[in-house]
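Quick note —
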Amino acid sequence: QVQLVESGGGLVQAGGSLRLSCAGSGLPFSSYGMGWFRQAPGKERELVATISVGGATNYADSVKGRFTISRDNAKNTVYLQMNSLKPEDTAGYYCAARRYGSTLYTYWGQGTQVTVSS
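Predicted structure written out below.
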């Protein structure tokens, strides 16, 4: 049974930082590309950052220079370091796994809430 479990969300003031973690189990983690997505109330889900099997990263324009995605395959964990947080970053954050060679994110976590106060 595949599980992705996010942690690290919370309430932070604008300009602050948080680090999200997503621990995977039940899948060959190093063979999966990983992504972080977010969804705010009343808005569509958006891609925040991705990291490939080989470690290549990609970011939404809105978070470039502020967020960093990384992975530790030995710990089956992907991270999202979020700095210089803004109120518009407030959302539920979800990690997802995409099998190498696939374009679809097959597995999803339950999400962790990030709230940035002004």
